[in-house]
Each structure stands twice: as C-alpha cells, then as structure tokens.
Amino acid sequence: MDLARLMTPDGPRYGLVDRDRETIRLLTLPAGPDGIAALADTTDRTAPAPTGDTVPLATARLLAPVVPGKVVVIGRNYGGRPDAADNLVIHLKPPTSVVGPNDPIVLTELSQDVRYEGELAVVIGRTCRSVPPERAAHHVLGYTCANDVTAWDIGTDGGQWTKAKGMDTFCPLGPWISTDLDPAAALITTRVNGAVRQKGSTAHLTRSTAVLVSEVSRLMTLLPGDVLLTGTPEGSAALAPGDTVTIDVDGLGTLRNPVAAPTDSRTTAA
Questions:
Q1: Mind listing the pLDDT tens digit for each residue in 18-44?
Q2: 37 phi/psi in degrees, rounded to 5
Q3: Do both 140 and 207 map to the same domain?
Q4: Phi and psi torsions of 34, nearest 5°
Q5: In whole angstroms, what is the distance from residue 211 CA to residue 233 CA?
Q6: pLDDT tens digits for 73-121?
Q7: In angstroms, what CA-CA distances link 106 with 92, 172, 203, 241, 268?
Q8: What is the CATH number for 8?
Q9: Which family does this protein fall into (predicted)?
Q10: pTM for this structure?
Q11: Cβ distance 16 to 3 under 8 Å?
C-alpha cells in the first residue's frame, strides 16, 4: 500500500496511490497524525474504504506524506563510511523543516556549504516506548524517501547539529509512504541534475531500521507520524541554486526537489 498526502479543494487529504492506473483514490481519514494512527490500527494493514473520488497522479499536488511531531536524524550509520560510529548518534529536526515533493530546498545566506543527504525514512504508526527490536515493525506504518539537507559549515565542528539541519525546507519527504517496502536491503540513489552522486543499500546500515526504532524508543517516546532518518551513504556534496535533487528508493518511488537561492520565495507545504 502506498499512502500519499495531497492538497485538494477541501484541504489536505490522504489517498491510496494506484501506480498501475496512475491515480490516487481519496480516503476519508484526516491528514494529520490521527490519520496515521487510524491506518496503523486497521487490521491486516488494509486501508479504510476509499471515498470513490480519484485524482490523476500526474496532476496531483503531493504534500509531505506525513506531518511529524519530530524528526529524529541518525548519523554515521553506514558501515562502508569511514566515519561510521559504534555508538548511536542522533540529532533532531523541527517539523518546520519538512517540505514535500517538488517544493524548493531554499538555501540560506548563513551557509556556503548546504549539502544533500539521501536517506530512507521510517514513519511511526503506533506509540512506541522501549520496544525490543523484534517488536519494532509492529510500531512502524511504513517508509518514505528523505533528504537530510545539512549546512555543513554551520555548527558541525562544534556539535551544533540543530543549526546545521533544522532550517526551513531542510527535510524534504515523499513522494508517499510505502507500507510494503522491505527495509533490509533497499537501494538508495541520489542524483543532482541527473548525475548519480550517492548510491547505497540499507543492507549496509550499522543499525537496522528495527534496531534504530528500538534504541530511539528507549531514549524518547515515538508518536504516530514521527519520522526517523536512517543515515546516508557516502557522496554528500554542496548544492547550488538551480540544481534539482532526486532521491530514489527502489520499490518505493522518487522524491524530487529544486534548489532555490535564499532570496527566492518558498512554497509552504503545510
């Protein structure tokens, strides 16, 4: 099941993506965290009955597929990277950093080195506190693509990662949530202007998604709609105005965002 959040004349709605028919079937669920909780609580992971209304996928204005209360960023979690960490490394992004597909990543005049970081994101479906790894999947609704945009010349040398990662538009998510993706060996490819810049598999994560959910839930309660970014492969580099970044997760979809100069207007994707 692919769950999208899209803008309609009646406001944000959730819908089921039918990739074969290239349509989105609208649902009656609310578009906030209550909708995520409702989907996670359905039996057999089946969706509530659609309303009967459909929107062509090609013309749908997709929003970030979830409105998280918090975004937990996992750092240095790829075994093939020279800076891979033995201990759990986490940072936080505020909800105001989240944007959706096709929304611009707006650069900041405070940084000369804003970088892309393609990642697989975990979307929490059920309240989660101190769960063991073998029970983690029970609390996960699904997965989506993420770009952990980071201003590397702001605060990273002193451990001030919130400064580097927390700016508006610095957390693109989308295009939808896949409840069927196997997170054990998902191939992630990041392209800038069509050229491959990052390529890695979640099979090389130091900590699997289940272990991450478990360890983070021992530190803080995870609520429906919260998002975990699982780490990025090697190859992160600076962005420039006019660039287009795409994050592709095989079997899930592609997240695409243009890059805008600090003076450009941003599109709000609430």
A1: 999 999 999 988 777 788 888 776 544
A2: -65, -40
A3: yes
A4: -60, -35
A5: 18
A6: 998 898 766 666 678 889 999 999 999 999 999 999 999 999 999 999 9
A7: 19, 11, 32, 8, 11
A8: 2.30.30
A9: Belongs to the FAH family.
A10: 0.92
A11: yes
